[in-house]
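Sample intake — Short-chain fatty acyl-CoA regulator family protein
Collected from: Sphingomonas agrestis
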Amino acid sequence: MRSPRRRLFEGFRLRELRRRLGLSQAAMATQLGISVPYLSQIENNGRPITDVVLLALAREFPMEAADIGTEAETSALLRTIDAATDTSIPAHALSEPDVRRGLEQQPLLARRLVAVHEAWRRSQEQLRVLDDRFDTGSSDAAPLPWEEVRDWFQAEGNYIDVIDRSAEALADALDEGPVTQALEDRLRRWHGVRVTGEDSDGSQLSRFDEATRTLALNAGLPLESRAFLLAHRLVRYEFANEMHHVVAEAGLAGQASRELLSVGLANYAAGALLMPYNAFRTRAREVRHDIDRLRQRFGVSFEQACHRLSTLQRPGAAGLPFFFCRVDMAGNITKRHSATRLQFAALGGACPLWIVHEAVAIPDRILVQLAEMPDGTRYVSMAKGLVKPSGSYARPPRRYAVALGCEEAHAADFVYADDLRPGGAATPIGASCRICPRTDCDQRAFPPAGSVIEIDADRRSVVPYAFR
């Protein structure tokens, strides 16, 4: 016999959430679709928080839903509703009441549904990789080291718990005052590392001499880059055991992949040290993920703050689910991660209709866009073009753009959505031409992989062929 489900009495958390958001009982009750007396009873622990209320919380306050209830209860409910209502599957979606009844009456069947859905998503990602490789003529069976490491981080949800929590503890232990000074002091006192500056043409950002324990930093670095490199060196000492264990358990094929993962973990740890999880997540919620305000508060770069937002996937305390990427002048995606349903093409560039490409050509200006994928999912995205000086006239500066976005359902928590009309017209985009099924796109570069080309010499359109 199945044991009865524990009744959830955590009204104080709901009350704290409402007060933190500055909502009256009437306002929150309206958003949750319940009466004011019912909400009052829940807050005073006179009534339990039901699945209906948990789902409403997840829908209206997605970042805070994980703070209420146990991780298992909330996670099971949200994963089941996600699997049952995925619009990318061409079948009749289940209603929320049906999902709730199924989870309560047939929990094993619900878990099976979630497992099948996750397996289907993995197979779709593998299909995207195979389509890309086939269409670009790549016959190598094994991925390149950087591809293997990139896919490993994606599979981990871009969140490494043991390193993130260690970085948070280390941040608390640092001396008060400017972060660069605190990092230098820790390196000197605990690890015998002396920090110096040196003139450079920009070809090297830092150089470490193990024999003399000297870290030489490029004298022309901006303050946030200097802080990151100091943090990067510090975490390689402080978290050596943790990173070694993660690499050993990752199961990567080659030595180059393992060494590249070590560098990636140090980069991850440095960002987590400069932007400690709970402090950064709390501040991000307060400023509605305004990157400039976060950048100033934590002394980091615009790109670093964007990247950190995409890593806030701690179980039970997740941040807003974002996708993040960096695109160069040629349209190549040089960094990418998605905690949303949006998946980037494994190889090559992105859809030309995506605002990030325009942002590359317009540095230091934020552009926003409401876009819709072929499966009907709509995203609010922000993109900004950045220019990093090279330090020398002989070396061109680095130019690229970063993009950050979330599903339209979370627009109220994303300050960049304020200038967009909710439910308004959206730009139709795809992951890439190789895997995009749209038949009416004027910007298509080539037909999708595996399609049959149809050419009508008597009809002329922007794209000189049709496909099926």
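Post-analysis note: The chain has 17 helices and eleven strands.
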